[in-house]
Amino acid sequence: MSMSEEVGFDDESVRSLDFEKYKGTKGTTDRLAFVHLKEIQGKLQPVLRKAYVHYIENVGYVLANDYTRSRFGEPTLRLVTIVGQYQTDKFGKIKQPFNESSLTLKFFVLSAKKYDALRKAHQEFPLDKHDLMVTCIEDQYQQLNFQSCKEAAWAIKPEIKKAVLAQVEKLAPYLEGQLGQNLTADQIKEKLGESSEGGIVADDTSSNADDIIAGL
Q: Does 3.90.198 match the CATH number of domain 5-213?
């Protein structure tokens, strides 16, 4: 049974493979396209998967379950979608010639705070129709500024759009694996080097850790 669920930007409320995650570089502006699209509530929009997770030191992100909640407290929200990162200069201007090789698809992992910022941008400039300029202010915690573009450049040329969507289809099954590991109590204890009677102090910095990795 899946422990994450699909959401859109209008929402209010596998183990990680060697796929790239988006991460901003301080002082650089990137141009991103939100390319994982689906019709939700009657309109086409980018979709994400979300899950509540715990960050456990020496284990990593783990999808929340009854055991993790009882042991580590309340989990944090984590979300992921697929973006295309354009080949640009450091100011976000697309390099020419512009073709199917001009975008690299990456997973974009978000904290609840970043999701809320993108949801607000989406309300004014829908992210299925507008790219996003992303400027990294600070590296470690991935403090990012967002600015909407006047168009979604990847969708203008049919041949580029077709190639991108074909790549999205291949990546989509691995979205959930970017959120966290689906581990049982015994598996967590084994990774921590515990016996069944052993104990561990819950890591209470999960929110900070989420900010470090969110937006990768």
A: yes
What are the boundaries of each domain within the chain?
Answer: 5-213
Least Cα distance to 34 among 97, 122, 141, 158 occurs for: 122
Tokens of 127: 């992210």
Residue by residue, what is the 3-state secondary structure of 29-94?
A: EEEEEECCEEEECCEEEEEEEEEEEEEECCCEEEECCHHHHHHHCCCEEEEEEEEEEECECCCCCE
- Look up residue 176 and give its DSSP letter: G
If you average pLDDT over residues 60-68, what whole number do you get? 97
Q: pTM (2 decimals)?
A: 0.81
Terminal C-alpha separation, the chain: 27
Compute the distance between CA of residue 29 and CA of residue 91 in angstroms, rounded to an integer: 5
Distance separating alpha carbons of residues 25 and 165, to the nearest angstrom: 26
Q: Which two tokens stand for residue 53?
A: 């997770």
| Of 182, 191, 189, the residue nearest 61 (C-alpha) | 182
Q: pLDDT tens digits for 115-154?
A: 999 999 999 999 999 999 999 999 888 999 999 999 999 9
Residue 95: CB atoms within 10 Å:
10
